[in-house]
């Protein structure tokens, strides 16, 4: 019996022609990096292709969990809703990397888009 299952095809209880989404591929890559016990993770806009619930869990649950595991994580993001979860907040502007602290950090956490002007 054949039928459609999301982007794959079910045939006699086997999933064929699976075409995972970009977000699903990123989840698998993260799992592989953790399984390989990598100490440093560079995650460039990792949550951008995730659904809103998983994005929240990524920032509020997974990142702290990985930090507790002793991982060093560089999470590059434009998602200002979650800047408050960062241990340190760095900004790249005109080729210069600077750490945002105090009022600058608070402003960036409120509205990253306004800082790009």
From TrEMBL:
InterPro entries: ECF_ABC_transporter_ATP-bd, P-loop_NTPase. GO terms for molecular function: ATP binding; ATPase-coupled transmembrane transporter activity. The keyword tRNA-binding does not apply. The keyword Nucleotide-binding applies. One of its GO terms (cellular component) is ATP-binding cassette (ABC) transporter complex. Keywords: ATP-binding, Nucleotide-binding, Transport. This is Putative ATP-binding cassette transporter. It comes from Kosakonia oryziphila.
């Amino acid at each position: 019996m054949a039928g459609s299952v999301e982007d794959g095809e079910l045939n006699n209880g086997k999933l064929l022609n699976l075409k995972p989404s970009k977000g699903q591929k990123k989840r698998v890559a993260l799992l592989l990096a953790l399984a390989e016990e990598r100490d440093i993770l560079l995650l460039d806009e990792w949550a951008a292709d995730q659904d809103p619930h998983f994005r929240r869990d990524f920032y509020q649950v997974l990142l702290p969990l990985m930090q507790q595991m002793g991982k060093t994580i560089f999470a590059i993001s434009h998602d200002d809703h979650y800047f408050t979860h960062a241990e340190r907040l760095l900004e790249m502007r005109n080729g210069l990397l600077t750490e945002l602290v105090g009022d600058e950090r608070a402003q960036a956490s409120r509205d990253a888009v306004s800082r790009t002007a």
